[in-house]
Amino acid sequence: MNSPVGRAVPRVEGYAKVTGGAKYAADVHIPGVVHGYLATSTIARGRITSFDVSRAAAAPGVIAVFSHLDMPRLTVPAAPYPKGFMPLQDTTIHHDGQPIAYVVAETWEQAREAADLVDVRYAVEQPKIALEDAPGEDFLPPPGPEGPYEVKLGDAHAALERAEVKVDHTFTSPVHHHNPIETSATVAVWEGDRLTLHDSTQSINLTQGVVSKALGVPPENIRVLAPYLGGGFGAKAPVWPHTVLTAAVARILGKPVKLVLTRAQMYTASGYRAQFFHRVALGGTRQGKLTALYSFSNQQLSRTEHRIFNTSETSWLLYDIKDLHVRQHGVRLDISTPHFMRSPEGPPLFGLETALDELAHEIGMDPVELRLRNYTDVNPETGGPIGNANLAECARRAAEAFGWAKRDPRPGSMRDGREFIGYGMATEAHTYRSRQANAVVEIGVDGKAVARSATHDIGTGTYTVMTQILAESLGMPMGSVRFDLGDTNFPAAGFSAASVTVPSVSVALDKAARSVREQVIALAVADPRSALHGVPVERVVIENGFLFDNANRDRRDSYEGVMGRHGSPVSATGRHINAPGYTTGVVFVEVRVDPWIGRVRVTRAVTAHDLGRVLNRTTARGQVIGGVNWGIGYALTEHTVIDRRTGRTLNPNLSTYLLPVNADSPTDIEAIFIDEPDPASPNGTKGFGETPITGVPAAIANAVHHAIGRRIRDLPITQDKLL
Q1: Peptide bond into 716 cis (omega under 30)
Q2: pLDDT tens digits for range 549-579
Q3: Are strands 92-93 and 257-260 parallel, antiparallel or unpaired?
Q4: What are the Cα distances from residue 631, in Å, to 66, 201, 250, 351, 657?
Q5: Residue 145's pLDDT is what?
Q6: What is the distance between the alpha carbons of residues 85 and 75, in angstroms, rounded to a whole number?
Q7: Mean pLDDT computed over 510-515
Q8: Residue 709: exposed, middle, or buried by beta-carbon count in 10 A (0-12, 13-18, 19+)?
Q9: Is 598 left (phi over 0), alpha (psi -120 to 50) or beta?
């Protein structure tokens, strides 16, 4: 049997999605359900001085209106609850869009209309919103789960002074928002002291734990379901207040309550990528050896937390630089909580990879050659390998496929009619952490297998790749196996974020499957009714659902036969904690710049990545296509506009927050995979999903410089910066 792993297997959940069979959180209908809507603050800093809900409570269909005046006291959990406070508990306003009332009505429309009738007065204080509003207020936070926020090796400042050539510039990127197609939704259903939550979340187990602590309910009394997710990108990885509040309100009312956030509410309720200022100073020799790196960054924080989410680890892991100083600062502001957004290395890599391009231009060296001379596979802190071994091969393969050798290095030298053509490239990298995952596999009396794990499919293909793993590990056809997820009644798994799902869950699943496979083999050889009776277990192989004596292929049995005679299911559980990892690659892009109108089009992209063993070429390529397109939005269009006077988001919708669409996407995106198993993983896999965005903004900016000779260090690259 040819292994299903590594092939371009179509999505196993595809039929359910295109026919409407896939039920998302907001699709869940519970008899007697009522609908919630959040009234939110219109100021960014201050306190409530008066609060009147009488008009709202008297509106048609309204069942109840809860505020700080009558909401039960809720415990503020620690991380992964990210806010540091719970709304509807006091009069303090921490940010614009903070929930101040929870309206419940018979319909969603009635609840929304009544929310507009809540009469609130404030004592307003002047907020600080952007980094520019708080000069000198930056600080170095204590180390977080991502590691230290400062790394010093050697003497970067002295090395910069000695460098034969250097570049020293500041690079900036604005606030970005996730914008998953499915907005966050929660349906809370109580049956006595037991709670079922249908939640749009990337972390059902974390949701269970946070709600348990906030409400004082044993976690075993809470079941969280999320079988389908319409995108998350980090927005749904932590547990936000709306989930806790919905569970609390449903308990008070004794009715099932459904809350669906609006698109605009997602901009203040579900995190975002923080504004980022980054000074990068690089030093090197005229021969292209990097000798010094100074990387200093500032980014937004809310006043109630201090975790850094645009992480700069890649600044000291990609290149062999003996003298470096990386320091990441935060600034507390009157804003909602920034959090992880897909590819958090993107902001720091934009600065580093653009600075490298500038250094290459300064010394007259090919940007690819400069990187090849400086790539390293050695962790400068530990001296151990870090997973860059195939990075140079990525650069060579992608450069050849792209046709980089045809590039005339002189800026402005390549044209097609009135358009200038530019080539640019950048290195990509993403780190992922250790997470524990568990899975159970059961083979029934019909000889078919079902596996379960409390993980998620956030649109990346988890259903499919885990089905492939299960079929391979059991030696069954894919039609005989099923993988279920999204239920806290299943064995626990970590959140589906930070590219950790595949390297953790797939190994746990493989362990469980191989264990139950051994049980079936043992049953067969011990059964006098089996053709394999008495065969040494080590001689039994399984292919396509059949068990064979490898020394005599005429002696065979089947899963169906063995399990039918056995008369009861067999099962096994697997557990795995993956090693932390690091996935790298390169991206090459072609842009065309129209100097008459300042338009930039990305017309071609070629990527090459080392993602360990490739489980599914279709889903892996899908990650690349999504990453390249997100990188286009990052570089050219995306920018959350916030009024610095009021803290209010001015473009909280898909009509003015400009995401790239099909017309913005290159028709030619080539994805190259090295496809060599990672020795640090039992099944050779790496976490990959977030890597393909990380270098795209820098590659586009570098291509724009090559096209017209103008260096843009402030994203996005909009027309006003080019004309």
Answers
A1: yes
A2: 999 999 999 999 999 999 999 999 999 999 9
A3: unpaired
A4: 41, 24, 41, 14, 15
A5: 76
A6: 9
A7: 98
A8: middle
A9: left
| Ramachandran sector of residue 618 (left: φ over 0; alpha: ψ -120 to 50; beta: rest) | alpha
Alpha carbons 201 and 187: distance in angstroms, whole number: 12
Total-model pTM: 0.97
Distance CA 535, CA 646 (A): 77
SS3 370: helix
Q: What secondary structure, in 3-state letters, does 217-276 show?
A: CCHHHEEEECCCCCCCCCCCCCCCHHHHHHHHHHHHHCCCEEEECCHHHHHHHCCCECCE
- Reported residue count of the chain is 723
- Pull the structure tokens for residue 543: 């292919």
CA end-to-end distance (rounded Å), the chain: 60
Write out the two tokens for 398.
């992608």
CA angle 272, 239, 512 (to 5 degrees): 110
Q: So which residues are the catalytic ones?
A: 690
**What's the rounded Cα separation, in Å, for the pair 363 and 222?**
62
In 3D space, the residue among 634, 64, 596, 548 whose CA is nearest the CA of residue 342 turns out to be 634
Q: What pLDDT band is residue 382 in, cutting at 50, 70 and 90?
A: confident
Tens digit of each residue's pLDDT (9 = 90 or more) over 650-661? 999 999 999 999
Amino acid type, 374: N
The H or E element containing residue 662 is: none
As a whole number of angstroms, the distance between CA 582 and CA 424 comes to 24
Cis status of the peptide bond prior to 80, with omega within 30 of 0: yes
Fill in the amino acid letter for 171.
F
Structure tokens at 425: 């490239």
CA distance 345 to 355: 15
CA dihedral 549→551→554→555, nearest 10 degrees, is -30
Distance CA 636, CA 719 (A): 9
Residues in CB range of 395: below 8 A, 6 or more apart: 368, 371, 372, 375, 425, 427, 586, 608
Of 6-15, 144-153, 556-565, 691-700, the range with the lowest mean pLDDT is 144-153
CA nearest to 399, candidates 618, 628, 585: 585
Q: Is-contact 451 509, C-beta < 8 A?
A: yes
CA 410, 412, 417, 419 torsion: positive or negative? Answer: positive
Amino acid at 516: V
> Which of 193, 227, 158, 162 lies closest to 17 in space, CA to CA?
227
Longest dimension (CA), the chain: 85
Q: Would you call 597 exposed, middle or buried from its count of C-beta atoms within 10 A (0-12, 13-18, 19+)?
A: exposed
Which of these, 421, 375, 420, 427, lies nearest to 398 by C-alpha position?
427
